[in-house]
Specification:
There is one protein chain. The protein contains 6 helices and 5 strands. The chain has 180 residues and is an alpha/beta fold. A hairpin with a 2-residue loop joins β2 and β3. The structure holds guanosine-5'-diphosphate and magnesium ion. Magnesium ion binds next to α1. Keywords: GTP-binding, Lipoprotein, Membrane, Methylation, Nucleotide-binding, Prenylation, Protein transport, Transport.
């Protein structure tokens, strides 16, 4: 086998997205196979490395974390320099973190200024898909003594009539006998 084809590729990957979306957690999960429920703003190191194979090629991923500085959008040029891929992360439960993706995308391209910005490799991760909003709401409702729950869309008119039918029904149980 040719020596050059076995050479390990060193790839710099940077992870961007709003504070709290789970960037550090994703790196810890991937590299150390663990997860911490407690909020830890930083892992202390500038980057972690992970060795893997892509097809038959040996690869070292050097994954850079923001150490919490993303809150100030001041990550410095060393952070961005020489990136081979940018991983964007948002929290699927937080609309705002999706909306700011465009800022992160633009900021990355501004800082790195790649020769061909249209084809620079990005990967988007929608994190925290384990959180079940409906389950949380149902549990909350049952903890408050079986409050009725409807998932609605005012825009698409989903379950709006049903919801207010239920409102009328439970209101009727109170039955204050207002004079009309
Ligand atoms: P970062 O600021 O983007 O680095 O976010 P962190 O990795 O510090 O995570 C912020 C909080 O979200 C922490 O409390 C994590 O435990 C939590 N978290 C991260 N990823 C997940 C996930 O996939 N599911 C859930 N339920 N919580 C997560
Ligand atoms: Mg972090």
């Amino acid at each position: 086998m040719e020596v050059s084809s076995r050479r390990r590729a060193l790839l710099k990957v940077i992870v961007l997205g709003d504070s709290g979306v789970g960037k550090t957690s994703l790196m810890n999960r991937y590299v150390y196979k663990k997860f911490n429920q407690q909020y830890k703003a930083t892992i202390g190191a500038d980057f972690v490395t992970k060795e893997l194979q892509v097809d038959d090629k040996d690869v070292t991923l050097q994954i850079w974390d923001t150490a919490g500085q993303e809150r100030f959008q001041s990550l410095g040029s060393a952070f961005y320099r020489g990136s081979d891929c940018c991983v964007l992360v948002y929290d699927v439960n937080v609309l705002k973190s999706f909306e700011t993706l465009t800022n992160w995308h633009d900021e990355f391209l501004k800082q790195v200024d790649p020769v061909h910005p249209d084809v620079f490799p990005f990967v988007l991760l929608g994190n925290k898909i384990d959180i079940d909003g409906e389950k949380k709401a149902r549990e909350w409702c049952s903890s408050k003594g079986d409050i009725p729950y409807f998932e609605t869309s005012a825009k698409e008119d989903y379950y709006v009539d049903d919801a207010f039918q239920s409102v009328a029904k439970v209101a009727l149980q109170t039955d204050h006998q207002h004079d009309m």
